[in-house]
Specification:
Layout lengths: L5 H7 L4 H8 L3 H9 L6 H11 L5 H4 L6 H10 L5 H12 L2
Length: 97
């Protein structure tokens, strides 16, 4: 059994196990097994889950939504593609401090 933050992300996105299961074409008991680690999060599951949860592939393996990453991902998703280079430039200035 391996720990992950799938359940926390699902709840953060306001989804039930059933809703997440429907979004990725499976059943709620499968989501339960994935959340507990009783079924591994293989690439077969990672891509559809990431799409349904609005996160990069595998982010829920190591990051919970409470660590600030969710806010960043939501903010980044709101930045229009044409403005992302400028936004990235702004973020890089913080690295230089």
């Amino acid at each position: 059994m391996s720990a992950n933050y799938l359940k926390a992300w699902r709840r953060h996105r306001g989804m039930t196990q059933k809703a997440l299961a429907e979004a990725i074409g499976t059943k709620a008991p499968v989501i339960s097994l994935l959340e507990t680690g009783d079924r591994g999060l293989s690439p077969k599951w990672l891509r559809p889950l990431a799409r349904a949860l609005g996160t990069p592939v595998g982010v829920f393996l190591e990051h919970g939504p409470g660590d600030g990453l969710a806010d960043f991902l939501d903010a980044w998703a709101a930045v229009p593609e044409s403005e992302r280079p400028q936004a990235m430039g702004i973020l890089r200035t913080f690295r230089l401090r």
